């Protein structure tokens, strides 16, 4: 009887791995959140006129956002690859590519929308727009990975909507959404899934 149950659990695990991406690392969320908070602090100093990278406030913000994004993506891919290797799974598989597509569509649309907002001189809605579209991307991608990703996405959307109403605190909302929420999410993922995977490994 125990053997049959073990076989069923093994088959279920194999099916879940093929249909869902379970190699997301909690520590990558923590590192991404930390990068975002550091980026927000640097952006605040630039906004205060303490220093500048390019001589243009807009270009400085774009540069900071790019560095934060590259740091977060690099950390995510590196740690997820490590987790996949430990669990004898592949990082790049059909479900991974589908998640990337699901996630990128709202992000690209959101990015274009934010460019339009800047062009139309309503930059105070850029941070809320980024949070909302990022949240939509997480919800879209969350169908093929941990349910917690959808919850994070919902939190990002709610925060973005609040930021659109409470004007003047864009940088704070940005730091909370991309920084604090990611750190909290990363810690939860680490203790909920990563430690379990390490023990099973």
Would you give an account of this structure?
With 201 residues, the chain is an all-alpha fold. It has seven helices and no strands. Helix 5 packs antiparallel against helix 6.
Largest sheet: none
* Mean pLDDT, all residues: 84
The separation of the N and C termini measures 24 Å
Q: Helicity range of the residues?
A: over 70%
Helical stretch tally: 7
Topology:
Elements: H1 2-19, H2 26-47, H3 57-86, H4 94-119, H5 126-142, H6 147-165, H7 170-200
Give descriptors for this structure.
transmembrane helix; 7 helices; membrane; mainly alpha; 201 residues; 0% strand
Task: Kindly summarize this structure in a few lines.
The chain has a domain at 93-200.
